[in-house]
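Hi Y.,

Following your request, here is the sequence exactly as I used it, all 562 residues.
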Amino acid sequence: AGKSTLMKVVMGLIEPDSGDRSFQSGTRFAYVPQEPVITGETLADYAASGEAERWTAESWLETFGLNPNKSTQGLSGGEIRRAALAKAFAEEPDLLLLDEPTNHLDILAIELLENELIQARFALLVVSHDRAFLNRVTDTVHWLEGRRVRTLNKGFVEFDDWAAKVMEEEAESLRRLTKRIEAETYTFYRSITAQRTRNEGRARALQQMRLDRAERVKDLPRELNLGVDSGAVSGKLVADIKGVSKAFGDRTIFRNLTTRIIRGDRLAIVGPNGAGKTTLVKVLLGELAPDEGTVRMGANLEPLYLDQSREGLKSDMTLWDALTPGGGDSILVRGRSMHVAAYAKDFLFQEAQLKQPISTLSGGERNRLLLARALAQPANLLILDEPTNDLDMDTLEKLEELLESYDGTLILVSHDRDFVDRLATSTIALNGRGDVVETPGGWQDFLRQNPGFLAPPPTHAEAAPSGARRVEKAESSDRAPKKTVKLSYKDARRLEEVEKLMETLPVEIARQDSILADPDLYSRDPAAFDRAMKAAEKARADLEAAELDWLELEEKKAALAG
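Below is the corresponding structure, written out as tokens. Let me know if you'd prefer a different format.
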């Protein structure tokens, strides 16, 4: 839409084609671009390289949780963003321009930034897709849609209702213009024998109306066509995690996590940067072994993992190359062949962009491209690690709609509080000190039930929050052991049986599916095809029943132990 371009015009980095850019003499600017570049040997060198005094720069670095003496080499995305923000605040501008400032920041850093902006005395111009952030820091909204800029003299909290009303009025205006063109066209051709000059004038007016309508249609928002194939139905149980702990050296990432993921769950994982969210995802997927505890994965899983590193896009490759890594002009999309140009159009890419290098794409366009590549594959388990970074708001809303209707299982790592609130059925939070807590619902539900969980460690012991499943340290050995009540002999035997079935039935399903994969089997031996089909269906039904029995027995076992 040109949001970043507009920021650069305001800053004077790009000259406008028409119109004026004027500011009061002596106005001081500070600008944090979407992809800041950090220079100098230390963060203090970088933050003081502009208009700021060194002591002011160091103070702001510490405010944003950074060591001023830290080297500028090997910084994480969040550290780069915080350093750039510290430099901008230290320069004490009259106007601060921020382009997607919450990208790569964790929730605590976002809330710190919000509080600093609310207290600041300078003017702020911000481009952001983070609705919770915009709700807190804005009192005016400029909406870039098509080639027009509309202004709402209220905060973003009023934006959705206002935008819907504007679009309704635009649609009605276009409808009236279309009806007028139809009426004028009819009148024009009926009066074709009338005075020639009068007809020429009417023809020019009619042509102008048609041009006006074409311009309005061109400015209508283009529809993003997102879709995902949830693939084969997974088993009822997606993952069963019992007493899982993970540490790296002396640092405990999380301890004694017990949870269960059922088909259709939408699990959010939140916490500060470096708390271990991505590590937890890898443990849940079986990519990383836990130090303690067990992870049991369900049957028939087809996972798709979109990680936050966004690896695999080389700046010199074209959009066409990225979508067709094996060459050719088509891409397999959810089991059917589709021309690359048609598929790219679904993600709002123009045909002219297909042969351009990826380096020419904006951050939002690159993320749309990664989504396009990922969503072409079938998956009944989606794992999205910070999917909202660099997304524009239209794409974000379409992604939300897609995920809300997705009938597979979703694991979501995100710092976007509004995104989590709209999607999550359960939220796991890590505080970076080894503690982990799971709460039904989204971000706001977690906050209400766990006040202070993500805050710095208290100076005295605090009780566990109520209303949530809190993972605690193992009880000290001097505490009296709790009397354990076990399953009955019959239930214990049944639990052993269903656990064996959950191991053997997926193998049988895979065996029958491999038989059915023979394209000539039906014509060659219809009876064998029918036997394999019935055997596969029975194995799937037996597996579903075994998983339900297992879940019921495990819940009974947990209730007796608790």
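The chain is about 45% helix and 15% strand.

Thanks again,
Q.
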